[in-house]
Amino acid sequence: MDYKQTLFRVVFILWITTITVLSLVESENFSRIDVKNSDKFAHFVFYFWLTILMFLAIPKQKFSFRFLVIFSFSFSVIYGIIIEILQGVITEKRQPELFDVFANTFGSFIAALVIYKLFPKVKFLK
Fold it and tell me: Model's pTM, two decimal places?
């Protein structure tokens, strides 16, 4: 494994940890953000990058490009659904929201499109 692969794995682990903590920690500070649907944009961004980082963290030699894109997308969507369910189960002040799942999925979908269209052309990522 080369240094890029190791770096991508470390960043992926840090990113998924950040998403998990921010999604499951109960904080009064989150409610201070009053911009309508700004949390949906945050969901989009978090899962957009989760999908890309997941794709970059997986060894490319063992799987086809298409499989890696589909796997990264699927993993991110399933993870987002699990996190939403956990918000309803293990937190008291946070509730699962269907529109959060939609925002997560849309972010992951756009990331999968970006990976599929642009990544084969970027030498650094090969």
Answer: 0.87
